[in-house]
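Curious: why these numbers?
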Amino acid sequence: MGTASGAGTGSTAIPKQRRLAARSKGQQSTPVVQESAQAETSGRAVRESGSNAAPAAGQRGWARRNVRGRKKTAASLSRRSKAGKNKPRSVAGSTGQGPAVARKETSGTALASSTRTASGAFVDARSLPSDDALLQQSSAQSKQGLGVFVKPKVVDFKARLKERQRANMRALIVRWSIIVAAIAAVIAVIWALCFSPALLLHRDEIRVSGGNEWVSDQEILDIVKKEEGRSLLLVSSSNIENSISGLPGVTSAKVDKQFPHGVKVTFKAQEPAAVLKSADGKITAVDRNGGVLNEVAQPPQGIPLIEVPSLDKGVGDHAVRQALKILAGLPDSMRQRVSKVTAQTQDSVTTELDGGQRVVVWGDASDLKLKMAVVDKIVNDPAKIGDKHQVDVSAPMRPIIK
């Protein structure tokens, strides 16, 4: 009896436990169904709402997809709940602990479902944020100007074109202003250096040195004065030097500018190669090239004298020019001994030394150095000259002594 009574009691307890478990599962599925209904109600509210905080059609589509996801989650939880009914349950004995164990399992299942599971497991839809929170977040982002909901900026192309034209005009004005300023600065510098009184040549600042009795300093000064009143930057030193060197009796000239108003000229004047005595008695000094230096009253000491019909004919005569070249090439010691020069032809230039004691026939001016060496050796050697007084070196390799 005891056994039968125990078995009866056990059979009566098992259906009771199953009813408690079914009631517990029903209680667990009820919040899920309620949550799904709330999600559907919230989605319908989003679609019907026309407030300013609701986004456009793109966000309403997102809300629909969210509702569908919640429905799928609720269906999955329902299937899991139905599958759990077929699993074996631990049944307590006759001690009366069955209801307590069922309540403990129910509370444990609810606690496990409220916590987040590992990756790959299902997520409780009740732990997800509500649609209102998501709508508020989206509305805040749209107000901040983020996302696709930002209103595009409208560009006024006419205003932009006018703005660009104004900018181009400003740039053009600045560019031309710089060019004009640069040109004005260059003109100012040129005027200050070339035309202002700061660098003009003054007459009292001209210095000349190197003249002699044949070429005076005044002749050189007259040439330099032509540049008076010009800027020293425009005064050509080379032109002045060429003008001075072209004067008869001048061998070289050098011009130095002394800023801001002065010029220093140094030149070298040569002795005349000879003096020409014309038939009218005038005596004129000439250089080695036949250039006329000046007229003198008496033949200068140590300067050879050449008799010519007239000054113009003498200067233009080829024989006289050959004689001047020979006289200019003689050393000072021999030229000072020359007392007379005759030149009937350009190949018969003859000089008299020491008042006619020695006569040298030079011929022309060719091989002048060789001829001078032969004359010097014969005239200064008494053993060779003997009692003779004429030496002909027109053919220097075969001199003739008479």
In short: Residues 2-143 form one domain. The two ends are 198 Å apart (CA to CA).
